[in-house]
Amino acid sequence: MNVIITENYEEMSKKAAEILIGIVKSNPNAILGLATGSSPIGTYKNMIKDHKENGTSYKNVKTVNLDEYVGLTKDHDQSYAYFMRTNLFDYIDIDQNNTNLPCGSAPDTQKECDRYNALLETMKQDVQVLGLGSNGHIGFNEPNTPFESVTHLVDLTENTIKDNSRLFASIDEVPRQALSMGIKNIMQAKSILMVVSGKNKAEAVKGMVKGEVTPALPASVLQLHPYVTIVCDKDAASLL
Ligand code: F6R
Q1: What is the block-wise mean pLDDT of the chain (240 residues), using blocks of 10 residues?
Q2: CB 228 within 8 Å of CB 191
């Protein structure tokens, strides 16, 4: 694992964006695995800025996102589809037909998981962007998800519901379920780029980098991947 420690969130975001922009420049047909949440917002802002100032093009880039809440349509302002449009896709020259997320409002969730798994088989990510849950989750693969898992329906843990409630009007509005790429789908990426910041992630970062490889801390599986870069601010790295 290549661990890059930055002074703060802003520096973390610049560094992570540099890495992603480098991948797109060297391969204009790159397949980017993307994440939502607070962690990558600054990274996406830097990519937008670079697109405007330097013209880095996403015309031929394709994307696959990690996850989506169950029960929200793609136009719901808390859906991850909406998040991706408003934090990145609407501000770069990507063809939105080339962007993919699991569909949270699909009537048959198992069928939707099967569709997404089949898609991922044809779309091996050149890089998969990840955030880190304070409980060590990646995507919505909560503690004790098998490493062999593929896209599946997840019951979110109380911990994750509480963490994510900051973005909703009240905790009751946070969806209780999500569709998430499994750990196997994440590990198929040619490289992994994790962005992580804040003291509340420090325990999980320590376990991920230095602890035992165990499903109890899903992110520890990344120790088994040959090309992982973790860009973390010094608060998140404080227990390393
Ligand atoms: C988001 C995702 C989650 C988040 C994680 C951290 O697509 O899959 O694993 O990356 O919950 O969330 P933030 O960045 O909001 O702290």
Answers
A1: 98 98 98 97 98 98 98 94 98 98 96 98 98 96 97 93 89 95 98 98 98 98 98 98
A2: yes
| pLDDT given at position 196 | 98
Ligand 1 neighbour 134 (Cβ under 6 A):
no
pLDDT of residue 159: 87
> Has this prediction a pTM greater than 0.90?
yes
Measured distance CA(136)–CA(216) in Å, rounded: 8
Residue nearest to atom 12 of ligand 1 (CA): 37
- By CB atoms closer than 10 A (0-12, 13-18, 19+), residue 147 is middle
Q: Is 43 in the pocket of ligand 1 (CB under 6 A)?
A: no
CA-proximal residue: ligand 1, atom 10 (nearest): 131
Q: Relative to the CA of 131, which ligand 1 atom is closest? A: 10
Q: Given this model, what pLDDT does residue 142 score?
A: 94
> 39 alpha carbon to ligand 1 midpoint, in Å?
7
Contacts of 108 (CB under 8 A, 6+ apart): none
Report yes or no: 225 and 147 within 8 Å, Cβ to Cβ.
no
Closest-lying ligand 1 atom to the alpha carbon of residue 35: 7
| pLDDT the model gives residue 82 | 97
Residue 139 Cβ < 6 Å to ligand 1? yes
Residue 153's DSSP bridge partners are 179
**Does 33 contact ligand 1 (Cβ within 6 A)?**
no
Query: Tokens 């196997």 belong to which residue?
Result: 184
